[in-house]
UniProtKB/TrEMBL annotation:
InterPro entries attached to this UniProt entry: AB_hydrolase_1, AB_hydrolase_fold, Epox_hydrolase-like
Lineage, uppermost ranks: Bacteria, Bacillati, Actinomycetota, Actinomycetes, Geodermatophilales
SUPFAM superfamilies associated with the record: alpha/beta-Hydrolases
Keyword line: Hydrolase
Residue span, AB hydrolase-1 domain: 41-86
Pfam entry (one): Abhydrolase_1
GO terms assigned for molecular function: hydrolase activity
Name recorded for this polypeptide: Alpha/beta hydrolase
């Protein structure tokens, strides 16, 4: 198995264009990816194991069309977010 390099998304990332925007947010030195769409009151969609933001793609568009701001992050270790160090 190869290391994709620090700060680079691996093959499990799905960064496809769509009616959403991809953002990277840093928290305590950890880079987290999120897909977001819409404007209005915030709805935060959190995926389960072993999923990532793509699980919510249909809800992202539907909720945004209903006048909400929707954010679906990749939790640490999933999708395009940083992975914990191995050791």
């Amino acid at each position: 198995m190869t290391d994709p390099g620090e700060g680079q998304p691996d093959a499990t990332s799905v960064l496809l264009p769509g009616p959403w925007a991809h953002r990277d947010v840093s928290a305590n030195g950890v880079r987290l990816h999120a897909a977001e769409a819409g404007e209005g009151p915030l709805v935060l969609l959190l995926h389960g194991f072993p999923q990532f933001w793509w699980t919510w793609r249909h809800q992202l568009t539907g909720l945004a069309a209903a006048g909400l701001r929707v954010v679906a992050p990749d939790l640490r270790g999933y999708g395009a977010s940083d992975k914990p160090p191995r050791g």
